[in-house]
Structures are given as structure tokens and as C-alpha cells.
Amino acid sequence: LVKRVPIRHPTNEGINSLNLEWFGLPFVAGMMLEVGGVQFPAAPFSGWYTGAEIATRDFLDIQRYNLLETIGTKMGLDIDNNSNLWKDKVSLELNIAVLQSYQLAGVSIVDHYTQSDQFLDHMKSEYQTRGGCPADWVWIVPPQGGSLVSSYHQEMVNYHLSPAYEYQDNLWRKHGRTNTKKSLKAVSWMLLFWNSIYKKLLSKRQKVSVFYATETGTSKKFATSASQLFQTTFDSKIYPINTPNVFSLIKESKVAIFVTSTFGNGEPPTMAAGFDNKLTELMGQMKEESCDLSLTPNKNYSTEDFVPEDWIKNLHFGVFALGSTAYPNFAAFGKYLDSSLYTLGGDRLVPVGLGDELGNQEGAFKVWVKQTFLTACEDLNIQTTNLKMAEAINMMNKAPVADTSFYRWRIMERKIELNDALGKTHNADMKTMT
What we know:
Blueprint: E1 4-6, H1 13-16, E2 21-23, E3 27-28, E4 32-35, E5 38-40, E6 45-46, E7 49-50, H2 51-58, H3 68-74, H4 86-105, E8 109-110, H5 112-130, H6 137-140, E9 164-166, H7 171-174, H8 184-203, E10 207-213, H9 218-230, E11 235-240, H10 246-252, E12 255-261, H11 273-287, E13 316-323, H12 332-343, E14 347-348, E15 353-356, H13 361-379, H14 386-394, H15 418-426
Parallel strand pairs: 7-8, 10-11, 10-12, 12-13, 13-14, 13-15
Antiparallel strand pairs: 1-2, 3-6, 4-5, 4-9
């Protein structure tokens, strides 16, 4: 029978409300034991858990149970604002709950600090005895504590020794099956066929270009999210704003989305300085009532600076500006970019979006990009079903989902008494002797 440990926090009712449980002992049965060249595909083993292995990896990993946002919401944290370190708070409190729960249940467990110290003692002993100790830093260093754990600062070399446990294919997936090999020619023709179909479908879609200007990477992250949303209906690609011939890319696009931060006291990010200078020059030409927005031929410009004629004609655009209200010129460059594109003749899809680093920046972006997407579909008369439109919008609200084929999630409505379970297993009448 499998021992389960109820996970309870001493003070946090948000965690307790989920009624989490985990196995008392880890049991690994899918690895192969190799001894002197002989392979044993069925060689199970067990041990005891590290607290962070359960709390941080099993419960919170995206590819596992992915409960990070669920627990954060239950704890009453603002999960749309990374700067409040809500993820660290969830992980820390869940680690506390796991360690205390196992200790109260009388089940062996070790915290990640003690585990790191124990490994370094083992490593020192191995070097003295064998002259080396193979180790994988990624597996040895715990997911909690960072550089505070002793093993974080230890260099490691990963090499193979025998005997050893090795990964192998899942036996139940390959047992009794014969592998049918396809020739390289057959695979190549198949790829070419599907690639041609994909290109034909993609050529019928309107082109959307998403440009980002960033210093810390936040704008790029939001731009990637916007591009993924538009890819459901448009031919969407993402570019840094300092891409060569950026104005030519804008001209080729039906919709241009700009996601940009503001650096310092209202300045553009370093990568957007060239674009900002060119935009300022075009605004100056317009004020001089110049009829031609392209550059004058008597100046010596590189091809990267070239601005095609009518580059903004019939362009639909949207700008999302990131910044912090802690500075006086909040999101100044994004606001300037939006007003300049509109003044030069662009068709603004929605008002400029503003994301405050001290507020719900990600939440503001999600609202803005949904409205921008819907307006673009409406203005460009994109024909699609309500179901596909709903799926495209809903993807913005979905957290990454783990592959459920790797685990089962079952709520135990009624726990079976030990004697009843043993009796059912062994087909016998089990009684407790006192």
C-alpha cells in the first residue's frame, strides 16, 4: 500500500484549502541498471525525498502539476506582477508546508540546505577514495535557495561510471512492437509536401509584424505573446526594432504592433535610438510640409536607413508602452511613438496601451492586446468562426498546461481502511491483533 502524506501549512489556509497530498517515499521503476555491460531493464529502487523536490518541482513545475498560479491565487497574491516576487513566496511557503507535514507524519525527508551539505561531504569522500565524483550540476543543485545552498558554488564534471542507473524508453510503449524504418527519401518528400501546403495556407493570410524595443527583456516577452496571438489568424512575425530595413518591413505589413519600454527619464531603449532619430526626422520633414517622406537623395545614407515612399500608407498600428510611474516621464517613448505614427498617417487600431511596472503590467497588456487583435480582425474584415475567435482570445488567459499523459490527478473521496485494503488485495479476512 502507498503511504500518502497530507500537506498542511502551519498558518497559511490558502495552501491548506487545496488538500494536497504526496507519496511518502519516492519509488523509481523505469530506469535500467547497467552492471559491467549487462543491462537490467527492471531494477526499481527507492530512497527519501528532499522537500524542494516535492514542493518546488512536483507541485509547481509547468511540466508536472503546474500549481504555481493556483496556489498564488489561493494565498491572495497578485500573480500578474512579477516584481512583488509572488512566485518566491509561493515556493517558500509550500516548502515549509511539505517539510512540516512529513515531519509530523513521521516520514523521512531532508531540507535542501542539509542535502547540499551532505552531497559535498560525499563528493569530498569520493575524491579522496576514487580521485573523482561524477555529478550533474542541474540535478544536484536544488531548485530552492539559489546561491545560498553550498552545492551552488561547486564545479562538477558529469561522466559515466559502471555500475550505473541509465534512462531507457518506456517499456510498455515499445514492448512487442516492431520498428518500421522509413527511407530518407520518403521522409523528405513528406516534409516537402506538408511544407508546400503550409506555405499556400500562410500566403492567404494578412501580414502582421510585431516590433519590440527593450532594455531588460520585458518588451520582448510581451511582443512574443502578442505575435503568438496574431499567429492564430494572421501571418505574424516578430522583429527587434533595430532590424535592418525596418521601414521596408513596416510597409510590407498590413498591421504593425509596437511594444516598447522607456529608458531613463523618457528616453527610448538603446536599440530603438536609430528608429527614434529617423522618426523625429520624418516628423520634421512633415512640419516643413514636405510632400515626400522618403529621404532626400543628396544625402549619403546606408540601405539600413532607407525609408520607402508611402511606407505608412494604409498601415494599421498599435503601440503598447511600458514604463514606471516612479519616473516623471512615464512611458514617454511609447507615447511619442504612438502620436508620431498617427501624425504621419497611420491608422491607429486602439489607443496606446500603458503598462506600469509598479502596477499590474501584465494584466494591462493582456487587456490591450485582446482589444487590438479584435479590432484588427474587424478593420481588415477577417472571416473566421466565433469558435476560432474565442479560442484565440482564450489562449491569452491560459497558463502553460502540463502533458496529462505523464500523470494522474485523482481526488480520494473515501480512504480505504488498511485491513479492508489488505483483505481485498490478498482475498483474505484481515483482522488487527492487539
